[in-house]
Design goal:
Elements (H helix, E strand, L loop, with lengths): L1 E6 L22 H17 L5 E4 L3 H14 L4 E2 L47 H18 L4 E6 L1 H12 L16 E6 L8 E8 L22
Parallel strand pairs: 1-4, 2-3, 2-4
Antiparallel strand pairs: 1-5, 5-6
């Protein structure tokens, strides 16, 4: 299976003047829509037609997925398991943003991987997050063993998917940063006696040359990496 992980386009929460630490289901900016369109056209031009498109259920990913649905003429499957960290409870059910005003804690999830990422007693921690991503990966690799799959997701989802592929433990020292609409290509290989995952590339962004968004800005808020 060829798995393409694509971060959503620039969202309001990615802007330098975004201040709140509350979990907010933000929309794409005008540039984010252009980035999403450019990424979809790059995939259409340079890769085989996907057999399936999956998307997180958050607004910024759903808006990004629209461009891929139109370009590929495939309906996306929306899945709560690939939402950004802290947007689900510890039992993996999604936090409903219109009824819950929950904030991220003041530490990065990888600093305290066994503590909730948000200030809720039922909030998920890093390992809860990886568990739901692992369940998603297990299902997708079984269903699409010899196919091509596109997943529209979030920066920290890409980060954690690579943790799963590389079998990284709870504590780690390297953050994998992905630009808005950066493309990561993993291949699942069911060969006995060797590695199951092959990383072809991470954060491919040449499609952004004409629409902007190549710069990477490090900010401390959890929402900056969503």
């Amino acid at each position: 299976m060829h798995l393409y992980l694509i971060r959503h386009g620039e969202a309001e929460s990615n802007l330098p003047d975004w201040k709140t630490t509350q979990i907010v289901d933000t929309a794409l900016t005008a540039r984010g829509h252009r980035q999403a369109e450019a990424a979809a056209q790059w995939v259409k031009t340079n890769l085989p037609k996907p057999d399936a498109i999956y998307s997180s259920t958050l607004l910024r990913t759903r808006q990004t997925a629209v461009q891929f649905e139109q370009a590929m003429e495939i309906e996306a499957v929306f899945d709560d398991r690939i939402r950004e960290i802290g947007n689900n409870y510890s039992d993996h059910t999604p936090i409903l943003h219109d009824t819950a005003m929950i904030s991220y804690n003041d530490y990065w999830a990888t600093e305290f991987p066994f503590s909730p990422a948000v200030n809720s007693i039922n909030g998920e921690n890093l390992l809860h997050f990886r568990a739901r991503l692992g369940m998603f990966l297990h299902e997708v690799t079984g269903k699409h063993r010899d196919q091509m799959v596109v997943v529209i997701c979030h920066g920290f989802v890409v980060d954690a998917m690579l943790d799963l592929a590389f079998n990284v433990g709870a504590h780690r020292n390297c953050e994998v940063w992905t630009s808005n609409t950066g493309i990561t290509h993993l291949q699942y290989i069911a060969h006995p006696g060797r590695e199951r995952w092959r990383l072809h590339y991470q954060n491919r962004v040449e499609h952004l040359a004409k629409v902007g968004g190549l710069g990477l800005t490090l900010r401390g808020e959890m929402s900056a990496h969503d």
